[in-house]
Amino acid sequence: xxxxxxxxxxxxxxxxxxxxxxxxxxxxxxxxxxxxxxxxxxxxxxxxxxxxxxxxxxxxxxxxxxxxxxxxxxxxxxxxxxxxxxxxxxxxxxxxxxxxxxxxxxxxxxxxxxxxxxxxxxxxxxxxxxxxxxxxxxxxxxxxxxxxxxxxxxxxxxxxxxxxxxxxxxxxxxxxxxxxxxxxxxxxxxxxxxxxxxxxxxxxxxxxxxxxxxxxxxxxxxxxxxxxxxxxxxxxxxxxxx
Length: 242
Fold this sequence. Notes:
The chain is of the alpha+beta class. It has helices at 5-29, 42-51, 60-77, 218-225; strands at 89-91, 116-119, 127-137, 145-156, 161-162, 176-177, 197-206, 229-239. The strands form two sheets. Strands 6-4-3-7-8 form a five-stranded antiparallel β-sheet, with helices on one face. The protein is globular.
């Protein structure tokens, strides 16, 4: 059905008045399309967004669709790099990840530490820490505790390896030791009473050199490291006595 000419003319006039009114209101509010589109300049963002829509009021749904991606993008850009592992990697020439640790490095052999090497230490790292523990003690079928085998900290960030059988005298200069669960410093190899256990070799890159914690336990070292971890990696080996 064709609209009467009077109605059609009135409709066009109302649309024109709405457009002029909206532009006049924008001008009064001081919208500036050339202004810096910072994340807090919501008025300017809305002004540019409205100009890309038909001459109708911007609905809440359209504003929601526009601002959600912007909010997510800004949130992701504010994530701090601390405590986020990047490319730090830890390896051993004696066993593969998830592989069996050779008898030589256990209580059934010479009970010496395995060779370890690493790469990808973050540029801002000031020191490294190493914790070796077994979360399957005493029985992997019913674990009740995590047994700590070795604790080192304040390893210089420039160091990239520990040789086989590293003793206290052979540790890199300035490296300090913590207490294992035999209540002594130094390495204690796998010696599971039953079943196949997993041994986690965990390396941490820190943004600081820790004070002398005087032979800390694992818990004390983890507390001191809190808030200073730039990156973390781990190498897991297994062992079962025969």
